[in-house]
Design a protein that fits this description.
With about 425 residues, this protein is α/β, with parallel strands linked by helices. The protein has 14 helices and 16 strands. Strand 7 (about 290-295) and strand 8 form a beta hairpin. It is globular, with a radius of gyration of 24 Å. Strands 1, 9, 10, 11, 12, 13 and 14 form a seven-stranded mixed sheet that branches. It holds the Pfam family GH3_M.
Length: about 425
């Protein structure tokens, strides 16, 4: 394995130089194909090791969470840490009461809760999510990771852990670290043979397609002016023709070989995913590699062939507890439960423990247990607590309102819900 990695590193500069040749229509050289095989072989080996590790940790979830708690307490930097060395869950709960992030923390992090886990723990789970997600995606759509088969159209990436060295070899099109959304979109438009589109979140991808419709003529002119040859002007004409036919199925008209859209969909992205699937990305599969909450990864996506939005809560990274909910509110005097104690069909609020400040932070994310992987729960995101409306003094939860809005739109012939915003009326008595 080490020999393969060294070979890849030696061949990388030559492959990059080869790919900078003017002719983009030339066949891939044997060197680029070899680079792809070596990179994919290394990634498959790492993913297989991660899957084996995940299977072992989930098979004995209680023991795995004990080890996660021990690591958390050993790394505590708080002076009030008599718990160091102890993993008694009762003492742990009694000594560290549940807390919420303060308003100041939310403001400092742009409206999101501060990450409750260290960079080390986030990195471990993020790497696991990326490796297992790539392997799962390749199993379902094996042609997606072919060279130059994937393009990212937003500055942010849906993959939680950056893997810069195999990206060029595994199909990622475009310059690494690019920050200009327009440049990323143009790069994708130049490549009609794409098999996958990547975007940081579904909302960001929705903005990309709305911008594509609004600025279509400018993008077509930029395409036509990008190369004196015949290929890009022809591509500009294809873009104009595709836009003239409207938004429905636009992605497949622009990229006929497209198979999947890779984007994060948890945490208030449901409407954007539904809108993309009904219009621009009609006929395409969606895959979300991870469940990211409050700056960290808490869930793994292992089943691209299943309905999107299902995540496994792993036991070995950040220490996760589940706070039982009843009808959208916390059950009175209900203690948290560990992963192996979660019950199918019940809803819980996620609780993560920060080893730096030794706080048990209620994230506000509500999930429902829909299944199990060994002893660990498989969940779907439901809503965020505290997101309520009040028209006449009542509290209407986000999930209730979204469901009602969806039903209302369904009764309006020809209407499609793209997005929505809510505000209480200041003119009502």
């Amino acid at each position: 394995m080490l020999l393969f990695v060294l070979l890849f590193l030696l061949l990388l500069p030559l492959a990059v130089l080869w790919r900078r040749r003017p002719s983009q229509d030339a066949r891939l050289s044997w060197l680029v194909r070899l680079q792809h095989r070596v990179a994919w072989g290394a990634l498959c080996w790492a993913a297989a090791w991660q899957r084996k590790s995940l299977a072992q940790s989930t098979l004995h979830a209680g023991q795995s969470q004990q080890r996660a708690l021990r690591r958390c307490l050993q790394g505590a930097q708080s002076p009030r840490c008599p718990l160091r060395g102890s993993t008694d869950i009762g003492i742990f709960r009694n000594h560290l009461p549940l807390t919420k992030a303060s308003q100041l923390q939310e403001e400092e992090s742009g409206g999101q809760l501060l990450p409750p886990t260290s960079n080390q723990y986030r990195g471990e789970v993020s790497l696991q999510a990326t490796l297992l997600g790539l392997a799962a995606l390749n199993k379902t759509c094996p042609e997606v990771l072919a060279p130059e088969g994937t393009a990212r159209v937003t500055p942010s990436s849906p993959w939680p852990y950056p893997l810069p060295w195999p990206w060029n070899a595994l199909g990622q099109l475009g310059p690494a670290g690019a920050k200009d959304p327009r440049a990323l979109l143009l790069e994708a438009l130049r490549s009609p043979g794409l098999r996958a589109l990547e975007a940081g979140t579904a909302v960001e991808l929705l903005d990309v397609f709305l911008g594509l419709e609004a600025d279509g003529e400018e993008l077509a002119e930029a395409l036509a002016a990008g190369n004196p040859g015949a290929s890009l002007p022809r591509r500009a004409a294809e873009l104009r023709e595709a836009l003239e036919q409207g938004p429905r199925g636009l992605a497949l008209r622009l990229w006929p070989k497209l198979q999947v859209v890779v984007t994060l969909d948890a945490g208030g992205q449901a409407e954007a995913v539904a809108a993309l699937g009904a219009l621009w990305c009609q006929g395409l599969a969606f895959f979300s590699p991870a469940y990211a909450a409050s700056g960290g990864v808490v869930g793994l996506s292992l089943w691209p062939e299943q309905p999107h939005g299902l995540y496994l809560l792993p036991p070995g990274g950040p220490f996760i507890e589940l706070l039982p909910l009843k009808e959208g509110t916390r059950e009175e005097a209900a203690p948290t439960v560990l992963l192996a104690e979660a019950q199918k069909g019940k809803e819980y609020e996620l609780v993560l423990t920060d080893h730096t400040r030794l706080t048990r932070c209620r994230l506000g994310d509500v999930v429902q247990v829909v299944g199990a992987y060994n002893q660990c729960p498989v969940v779907r995101f439901v809503c965020r607590l505290g997101q309520t409306l009040s028209v006449r003094g009542e509290d209407t939860g986000e999930d209730v309102f979204s469901e009602a809005l969806g039903r209302a739109v369904g009764q309006w012939p020809g209407a499609r819900l793209l997005d929505h915003g809510c505000v209480e009326s200041s003119i009502l008595a």
